[in-house]
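Check these lines:
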Amino acid sequence: MPGKTPPAIINRLNHDIVQAVNTPDMKQKLLDFGTEAVGSTPQQYASALKSQADRYGKVIKDAGIRGD
């Protein structure tokens, strides 16, 4: 979502997406693709993304990987 998306819209989309991924049919389709969806709040998702960026950013820096 664009950074200036109103929280009410983000929360509504989050609610609808969590409902969709928690249906038995969708859960099975995702498992067939080798993934599992976890319904969470937008804040939990942002926190998880930041944590991964911090962790993998350190790995990339320590390995000297460059995106030339």
